[in-house]
């Protein structure tokens, strides 16, 4: 059992929040302060929990969903408004996040026989209406939290399946590879969250690699940002270019890799490189086969895996799965060509 060291992983990266502030957009100014407070409080709880889990194996649970209403406060697990098997409520946001969590749970179970985030059926804790106009959604190590957005730039973050899939996958990564949330391992952590956010959206919409839009967060863009998205896996660097958010900084090739210190060493920036690889592989062997290859590889990665060792791990798994006839025979070739296309 890996240590439960989680990230405070937010769907909207710090550089977008900074651009919005520069543009004078009334995104709650305490967004990053809230994040820091959470990180500190959560770090204490997680340290306690991981020292406990080293001694006891967690009991298997049923991955029950619990939806809490933060009622525009910054408190999590405030009012329990819907639990597993409970009737729909009058609040459509509560019902949507409940349904979406069910779709994500079912995907991991059906595709990989993997139950909840920890494969031990951990309960899925979902908080909605967090803060006032809070324009973000995050996984913080043991639960998911969604703000309502400001209604202009970002609309309710709990509505989008890819956002929930992204955040929940941070939980899956935490309990499998445990990728460190910094530099290239952090970009791979972000990459995995985008991959399964996008894959689950494709499965739900019955799309193929060719018909999917490969956009992340396009459904949370408010009236002033219509037609844009947070990221594009198909064409990193082209998801947005507007006076409010600035320009999408994601590279799609190693020759443009971000080497700065912002965004934990570019975790939401350099994820564009492996994102492009996944798009190319999915286009070559179909999304479900690429997803299987990526998930099987995830279980073999280390917390410090970088892009180069990631390529080695994917190739090794491609060979293994092709022998077992679980992916097409030419998968290894497709994978090699796809990594070459981004300079790896
Ligand atoms: Zn993330």
Helix-strand layout with pairing:
Blueprint: E1 9-10, H1 14-22, H2 31-53, E2 65-69, E3 79-83, H3 92-112, E4 124-130, E5 137-139, E6 144-147, H4 161-175, H5 183-204, E7 215-216, E8 231-232, E9 241-242, E10 246-247, H6 262-266, H7 272-285, H8 287-298, H9 307-323, H10 331-341
Parallel strand pairs: 2-4, 4-6
Antiparallel strand pairs: 1-5, 2-3, 5-6, 7-8, 9-10
Helix pairs in contact: 3-4, 4-5, 5-7, 5-8, 7-8, 7-10, 8-9, 9-10
The structure holds zinc ion.
Short description:
This is Neutral metalloproteinase. It comes from Spirosoma utsteinense. The chain is an alpha+beta fold.
The H/E string reads: EHHEEHEEEHHEEEEHHHHH
The total strand number stands at 10
Outline, from the CA principal axes?
A: globular
Largest sheet: 6 strands, mixed
The CATH topology of the largest domain is Elastase, domain 1
Strand order of the largest sheet: 1-5-6-4-2-3
User: Separation of termini?
Assistant: 31 Å
What is the overall pLDDT average? 91
Strand proportion: 5-15%
Number of domains: 2
CATH architecture of the largest domain: Roll
- Ligand list: zinc ion
Low-confidence stretches: 51-55
Helix content: 40-55%
